What we know:
Layout: H1 3-22, H2 29-32, H3 37-40, E1 45-46, H4 48-51, E2 53-60, H5 65-83, E3 92-94, E4 97-101, H6 108-119, E5 129-134, E6 137-142, H7 144-168, E7 175-179, E8 183-189, H8 195-202, E9 207-211, E10 224-228, E11 235-239, E12 244-245, E13 249-256, E14 263-269, H9 271-283, E15 289-293, E16 297-299, E17 311-314, H10 320-332, E18 339-347, H11 349-378, H12 380-403, E19 406-407, H13 409-438, H14 443-475, H15 479-513, H16 524-530, H17 541-560, E20 565-566, H18 568-571, E21 573-579, H19 585-594, E22 600-603, E23 609-614, H20 619-623, H21 626-638, E24 643-650, H22 652-680, H23 683-707, E25 710-711, H24 713-743, H25 749-759, H26 761-781, H27 784-821, H28 831-840
Parallel strand pairs: 1-19, 20-25
Antiparallel strand pairs: 2-8, 2-18, 3-4, 4-6, 5-6, 7-8, 9-12, 9-15, 10-11, 13-14, 14-17, 15-16, 18-24, 21-23, 21-24, 22-23
Amino acid sequence: MSSLAKRTVWYSLIIIMVLLSALPNVLPGSTLEKLPEWYGSNKVTKGLDLQGGSHLLLAVDASQLGVNASQSMAEQITDTLRADQIRYAPPVVNGNQITVRVQQQEQVAELKKIARQLIRPAEGTTPLYTLSDVDKGIQLQATEAREALLMKDAVERSLEVVRRRLDETGMVDPIIARQGKDSILVQLPGVDDPSHIRKLLGTTASMQFHWAAKGNGGFGQEAVMRVEGQQEGETYVLERKIALAGKHVKDASLAFNPDSGEPVVNFKLDKEGGRKFGEMTSENVGRALAIVLDDKVITAPVIRGAIPGGSGEISGSFTTAEAHDLALLLRAGALPAPLDVIEERTVGPDLGSDAIAIGISSGIAGAILVLLFMVGIYGSWGFIACVGLTINLGMIFGVLSALGATMTLPGIAGLILVTGMAVDANILINERIRDETRRGASAVTALKNGFHKAYSTILDSNITTLIAIALLFLFGSGPIRGFAITMAVGILLSMFTAISVTRLMMEWRVNKMGRRPLEISSLKWLEKISQGNTIHFMKGRFIGLTVSLILSVVAVGLMAKPGLNYGIDFSGGSVLEIQTQKASIGDLRTGLHERGIEVAIQEFGSEGNFLLRLPMAEAETVSGENAIQNVRENVQEIADDVVFKRVEMVGPRVSGDFVDASILAILIAAGGMVAYLWVRFESHFALGAMLTLALDLTKTIGFFVLAGIEFNLTAIAALLALIGYSVNDKIVVFDRIRENLRIYPDKPLMQLFDESITSTLSRTLFTSFSTFLAIVPMAIYGGSAVSSFALPMLFGIVIGTSSSIWIASPIVLLLGNRRIRKGLGQLHSSREQRQQEIDALP
């Protein structure tokens, strides 16, 4: 079997397997039911922005973790002292610091011994506290190791409790995952008002039993604490030591008191808890036992006799709903620390279905435009590229399905963008083959050399884009990660289809052509230019650099005043997108003002759509539901037909993290690509690309200001994608300059640059135009959800393409002439030559 036939078989098998992975995405539900579950469920999941639902980011409140751990450590020490009959004073716990004193100075050594055994969790591990001497005692100070251990344990336990609580509510397919070192991400498909869920997840539900204090504490006596009761002004003095922990509650249920008919909660203890409860009640008859829930005494009955069996009743001023929720919380277990909602995003089902329709229609329109363009430019050879592109799209869905990826609206935007960028490799290949054909090469030779020369350029340009995409995945979250995954998979598969699949189809056609020459059509006027008529771009290098610098300075000034229109990702606060036909913007503004609610209201999108903005709230306000729920209720009073299409709340901590992560991601992306260019080309190529990127980015940010486009996390995705795209475009020009420098090392540098840019002009224009065509439908029909991505991308494509010719190349030319004056070469040299060049530097 020939090599061509073998490759055909192997590539066909790979393509079929991957396309089979994508098949469940398009099969009807009746067919999927007949297939094995493992195969039928192999589909791309729709994100919340496509199917509707709520996204909550919960942060573990570590403020009490350290105090509770210190209190627990103090109790362990005093329990051991009591068992050893060593008299002690009530320990003093001050945050992460514990002070323990004994009555006799000679007993301090024994106290130290006890403490050292307790502060080291296991042999060979780092101590959780440092120990120092005080008068008649010791002082323990928590270490960083304890803080890290507490947070890790708290997040892991909180994950499990959150999962159990959501299971108890009957929630369908919630997504619960750890995010960062102290946060938990919860996604709730189909939930468009998460206020009840937010309250359940934010309630600690820490239940403990404490005996009423006998005294105020003293040597050998228990420390006491004051705890509020249910009634205003009611206070209980209780022993600080926990008589029985709530972890022993194995079941709880809603019930009704047979005498009063009031809702109560019946609970049952596990075997160990039942035994302890029986013993402690039999030994403390006539004493009050308080049930403390989240630092508040729910009830404190006096024990009249031993209570065997391990069951009891919690009564209070409960409504039926409150008693039901309390029973649910007790069954699911207590959180180790409170969870604050630091970010909330809710998308209504109507908005989700609209997003799907918009994404599909704009994606299909963009793909059709790109395919028509390729066929129009390259004829039948362009049709081969279109077949490869179609296979590439199907394989993207196959790989995403196998990965269990989630498709979001930004993900659809990434799919559309990668459709345009995937054409780049095919254009590079076709242009290289045309160059070889002009030199008189046979069809087979032209095909072979064309792919060989295009390979390194394709590899370099895609690696730089992948650097930016990798950072999007690392620093992004939610939908932005979906965009990054889609882009990364698309770029890798486009390389496979262009270099392998498209080449295979072209080889089959060349074999059928016999001795006929290989002819790839193109635009006639571009062919004339590339056949010897060099455009002297570098004569205008100073004009290009001056104009670019002026525009960038103006853009920086616009950033200062009037400034960017920051979205809540960066500014924090709350946004509600509503739809109503019964109230105008004036009715809403007046009605809310009369109710004492000050919000910014603007018309948004189509008629009857409004955007309500609340200013930055403190973390506690965001984590609570009062502010946003108050606006909801009052808007419903003003317009009873109101539909809440989208609700977003972002706390100050999240917005601050977004700012830091975004700046870091852009800097690392630019730095990573510059480092790659430094290795692959030379320092002046890398420096030229870096300076050009800075100019491109400032102008693009200036465009955000002029166009009034919201600067949010999607905008950062656009900027990082633009960095990759811009460097991608420059690498093609740099690669041709490098190639010509090797062939014509003695040719004047300016002439060589002009010839290199002219010879790559068709590729530069075709790639930019195809990517532009892919994004145009999304920019026109995509709406506000992707406007922060699509519009800047269109602007950035124009800026990035022009800067490759008028900015990057002139900078490299200026730096190249400077190297000539210093006696340095233009390309990487041998180690000996490099050392000579270094020695020649001033």
